[in-house]
Amino acid sequence: MPVITFEYQDLKDLGINLEQEKLINILPMMGSDIEDFNDKEIKVEFFPNRPDNLSIEGVSRSLKGFLSQETGLPNYTVEPSGEKVYISKEVEKIRPYIAFAKIENVDFTGNKIKYIMDFQENLHWVIGRDRKKVAIGIHNADVVSGDYKYIATSKDEHSFIPLEMDKELSPKEILKEHDKGKKYAHLLEGFDKYPMILDNNNQTMSMPPIINSELTKLTEDTNTVIVDVTGTDKKAVEQSLNIICSSFAEVGGKVKSMEMVYEDKTITTPDLSPKESLVHVNKTNELIGGTCLDAKEVKRLLEKARFGAEILNDNEIKVQIPPFRIDILHEVDIIENIAIQYCIKKIPSTLPDINTVAYEHDWFKSEKTIRELMIGLGFDEIMSLMLTNEESHYKKMLQKETEHVQVARPISVEGTMIRTSLLNALMEFLEDNKAEDLPQKLFEIGDVIYLDDSSEFNTHLGKKLAAVVCHSNANFTEIKSITDSVLSNLGYTMEISESDNPSFIKGRVASVKGSSKHGDIEGVFGEISPEVITNFNLEYPVIAFEIEFLRD
Length: 552
Known about the structure:
This protein is an alpha+beta fold. Helices cover 27% and strands 29% of the residues. The strands form five sheets. Strands 4, 5, 6, 7, 8, 9, 10, 11, 12 and 13 form a ten-stranded mixed sheet that branches. A hairpin with a 5-residue loop joins strand 22 (495-498) and strand 23. Helix 3 packs across helix 7 (234-250), helix 8 packs across helix 10 and helix 9 crosses helix 10. The longest helix has 17 residues, at 234-250. It is globular and about 70 Å long.
């Protein structure tokens, strides 16, 4: 989960004058965990559903409501700056969405530049999926002038000095020589042109989503900033800008809007107006349980959560949701905030009055048989999480990234998607245990999830069995024998054919199909590619199989 670090004195400067012990007791009641602390600073871990709390300004705003120092909807005004951003049609195929804001009266003294950079990076992976969906640039506005341009440039044009360097590089050179360029080059892979943000004098401000220009680097003397947010998801882009602008506005920043000028439309950003919803008193008491709140008390608790609230009648309250609360999707989310402000510890615990009788599903009975077989063949079982990440699941395995179920608010960069294969988890386990004696023989049986438009829930569940063997003489003949033994003992016939699975060595990999009275299977077995082995920092050959049990 994202962790933010701040000094107690900086929090006091924002109006939160709490003793260290009291602060440490209160923060977990607001949906956070204390990672570490000392006499000077504290590290706090927030759930990714609250990206507005990933800045010290956001924490201060939430604490003021929880402590009843400031309640109700924060009022952030936005004035027009009169400046425009002209968007080239060429960027539509690369990173089509962009939002800008100008913020005056900012203060970057003390630790504030570090705080804003940490905030920016936390948003990059909480909302932006490590810059894939959203990339954020914050620029010193004193060294550039509007209007601005968002264009697509060739790989050798518009050379500039990237942040933390002292020489000009072309976009192509940045992707090869700059640390950030090498790390995020895959986001621009396959494009002939790259996005670029220029000012009115054709000075380069940024090459999103890679790096800003050294020209617009923030300093303690910076008084006005330009915030740009680019990405592939319109909603995520606008939400990210709203969160950043709200944090600046919370400490006196003067937010000014800018016009995004496309060929066929003009959009003004940011929009900090609140959204409206209804919450019902009876449903609030029902879902929280053990409470008898009335409309006045619910209104008071909503205002502590920094919502606007207006009582319509004894059962209905109109709620104004601030622009930084992007986690509010349903009435239940609002009721959760009421419960937090009421104080979770005060809610009485009760046992449900429903009795149920459970029995083991037939599939789990068959899993026992498979486990006994694999253990009999000398394999050790692992159980990994269903959550994985695109880097391990696709890139390290040399697989082409396909449509998959993504986690909307990932807790960590290691868990951004739901797996469709078990092999990368087995390779990761080998990597973590490469100091152990060889041979290593591991297996896993578990669920995978696929996107499926024909399904009621747009997904369907699959069941797979995968195994790896690692030792100095591991080869195709051995894994073919193991696969044959597994399938025959489970009652399946075995038909093999050629395969071009890129995770395996070409010519030493085969597809397998089988059938039995229980259903059909399909899969692959062979020698893992040396490049995959290197990607997982392994030093010995690895052979593997993975089969899926197909259901009607």
